[in-house]
Amino acid sequence: MRHSMLPPLIGISLIVVLVCSLRCKDQSTAPKAPNPYPFGAPSSLPLDAHAENRRLARCVNFGNALEAPEEGDWGVILTVEYFQLVKEAGFSGIRLPIRWSAHAKSASPYTIDRTFFERIDWAVAEALSRGLNILINMHHYEEIMERPADHQARFLALWGQIAEHYKNYPDGLLFELLNEPMGKLSAALWNQYLAEAIAIIRSSNPFRMIVVGPVNWNNYNALTALQLPEAERGLIVTFHYYNPFQFTHQGAEWVDGSSAWMGTLWPNPAMTAQTLASELTQAAEWGQKNDRPIFMGEFGAYSKADITSRHLWTETAARQAENRNISWAYWEFCSGFGIYNPSTRAWNHALLSALMP
Ligand code: BGC
User: Which of 44, 97, 178, 209 sits CB 3.0–4.6 Å from 139 for a disulfide?
Assistant: First the structure.
C-alpha cells in the first residue's frame, strides 16, 4: 500500500513546487500595484471639525511661491529645508497658497497641468511625511473676482480635479476653497459657488476638512454674510486679520498710499491691544453661534514696520486667537512678512518667539 501511494504524492509535490515557483516568478516580474495610501488613508467616518481645527493649531503660510504666476517669480522657490525648519520650530502645519488658475486650460474641461500637479504633490508629501498638516488653497484667482459668471464652471472643475487627485490622502491634507473672495464675487454669488464646490468635493472626499471664508478679502466683519450648507459639518471657517491696516501694511509696495503710514507703531492710542482682542472676539462669537471652528488663516505685519511693534502685534494676535480656540497661520515664511531669512539662513527671532513662545 505504502509503495503504491508514493507516485501520486510525488506528483502532488511536483505540482506544488511548480505552482509555487510560477507564483514566485510572477511576483518578481509583475509591476507592483501602487500603494493608494502612501501617507495613510483618509478617515472613513465623519471627523469632528473642532478637533481637526485644534490639530491645525499653529501654522505658517508658504507665501509668494506657488501663488506667483510661476514659482520663483516672486523670489520664493520652496525647498525641502523649509519644511524641515518649520517642523523643527514646532509648527503644526503649512498653508500653501496656490494659483491653480494659471496652470489649467482656459476651456472645458479646464485640465490642470500635470507638471504643476506634481510640484504640489511634492510639497504635500514633504509636509505629510513630517507629520505636518497641509492646507492647499486656491489663491489669486483674480479672474473670478472680476467676471464670476464666466469663471464659475472653471472654478468648480478645478476643484473637481483637485479633489479627485487627492481623494486618497490622509486627513492632514485640507482644502481651502478660495482665498479672499472680493470684487464682483458678491456674498450672494459666493454663498452659491461655495455650496456647489463643497458638493463636488464631497463626491470624492466624503470627510475631508474644507476651509472656507467670507467675502471682503476674508474679513471677520463679513462673517455675518457667509452662508454655509447647514448639514455640512466638515467645515472650518477662516478669516484674515491685518488690523490696523495702516500698521501691518505700512510701506507695502502693492498698497496705494501706504508709504504715508511709515513709522506707525503698535500699540498706539487709536489702535490698542483691546481693539485687537475685541475684533477676534467677534470672529470667535460668530463661530460659537454657528457651531463652526475658526481659523485665522493669515495675519502678519510687513517688514517695513518697527520690529518691536511687529513682535508685540504678532504675539498679541497669536495669543488672543489661541485664547479663543482660534487656530492660525502666520503670513508668511520667508518673504516681506517673513519669519525666516533665506539669504542669511536665519530665523527672525523677534517674530518666531512671538509665534512660538
Ligand atoms: C496676498 C498677498 C499679500 C498678503 C498681505 C495675501 O492674501 O495674497 O499677496 O502679501 O495677503 O497683504
Answer: 97
